[in-house]
């Protein structure tokens, strides 16, 4: 089975563990995910199977959407609910939804974030969480991210010393939602952490089209393709597609340069073209950086 499985990742599993389970279910070693989700996070996790592992880079979404719960009044070592509490401040009853909405409005657009110590970002060839587990603090590089939408989607739930509310975030790749929760708390004048997170969209893939492990097992036992399983062509439908004849197909399989077809002359240099033969993707092409009117292969999917 060559294609992309839209997995509804459960909380409590690492993305790597999900890949291993899919390997066993489908009986193949060629499996890979398109973007890590933290163990405590659930939601959309596209997994490439078989030949689809060759297209993983084209499925790494430029934007993602999350539903997150922010708890203010307490911060943690990991910036989420799994860490130890390191700072507390009782939340005043005067906190209002208007205050929160104003902060969210201010934080929409380009932001600078410093990745949390408990993250997979590498510094000097070593992952930050490895330093953190050794009790070491290292200087972390800031990164620019973009928040497209940041909305308050619940009332404020007051507890004895803390308060919580839910937000919907549409953001660029590389955004840390738990760090965003801490930043929101800072603007409100309180320590904070992310207490729950679900990824509802990864690019064009949505949670409503995903499938959980229990359902996958049931489908496979019955001998059916699981719901949420997409062919390689379906998974690449967000890219321009070009169908070719048998003669050109032979050249594509050998990695030949081709003349840019007229119907695709207006595509951007950054865009990629899915070259199809008899309805099946043969290769991914791109505009040649030096030769105008020529396209070259970036990834050949079929060589036989």
From TrEMBL:
Keywords tagged on the record: Isomerase, tRNA processing
Stretches assigned to the tRNA pseudouridylate synthase B C-terminal domain: 178-221
InterPro entries, per database record: PsdUridine_synth_cat_dom_sf, PsdUridine_synth_N, tRNA_psdUridine_synth_TruB, TruB_C
Record-annotated Pseudouridine synthase II N-terminal domain positions: 23-177
Active site: 38 (nucleophile)
Pfam family, one: TruB_N
Catalytic activity: uridine(55) in tRNA = pseudouridine(55) in tRNA
Molecular function as annotated in GO: tRNA pseudouridine(55) synthase activity
Stated role: Responsible for synthesis of pseudouridine from uracil-55 in the psi GC loop of transfer RNAs.
Protein name as annotated: tRNA pseudouridine synthase B
Native source species: Aeribacillus alveayuensis
């Amino acid at each position: 089975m060559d294609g992309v499985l839209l997995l509804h990742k459960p909380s409590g599993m690492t993305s790597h563990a999900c890949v291993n389970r899919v390997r066993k279910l489908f009986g193949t070693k060629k499996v890979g995910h398109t973007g890590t989700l933290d163990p405590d996070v659930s939601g959309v996790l596209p997994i490439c199977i078989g030949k689809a592992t060759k297209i993983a880079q084209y499925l790494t979404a430029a934007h993602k959407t999350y539903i997150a719960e922010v708890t203010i009044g307490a911060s943690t070592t990991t910036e989420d609910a799994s860490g130890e509490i390191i700072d507390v401040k009782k939340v005043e009853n005067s906190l209002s939804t208007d205050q929160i909405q104003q902060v969210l409005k201010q934080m929409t657009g380009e932001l600078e974030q410093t990745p949390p110590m408990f993250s997979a970002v590498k510094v000097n060839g070593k992952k930050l969480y490895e330093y953190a587990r050794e009790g070491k603090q290292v200087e972390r590089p800031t990164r620019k991210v973009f928040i497209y939408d940041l909305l308050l989607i619940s009332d404020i739930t007051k507890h004895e010393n803390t308060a919580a509310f839910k937000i919907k975030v549409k953001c660029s790749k590389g955004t840390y939602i738990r760090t965003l929760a801490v930043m929101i708390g800072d603007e409100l004048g309180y320590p904070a952490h992310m207490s729950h997170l679900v990824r509802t969209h990864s690019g064009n893939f949505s949670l409503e089209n995903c499938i959980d492990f229990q359902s996958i097992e049931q489908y496979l036992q019955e001998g059916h393709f699981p719901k949420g399983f997409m062919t390689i062509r379906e998974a690449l439908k967000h890219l321009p597609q070009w169908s070719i004849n048998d003669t050109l197909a032979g050249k594509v399989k050998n990695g030949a340069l081709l003349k840019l077809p007229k119907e695709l002359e207006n595509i951007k240099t950054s865009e990629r073209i899915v070259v199809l033969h008899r309805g099946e993707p043969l290769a991914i092409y791109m505009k040649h950086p030096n030769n105008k009117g020529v396209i070259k292969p970036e990834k050949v999917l079929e060589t036989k």
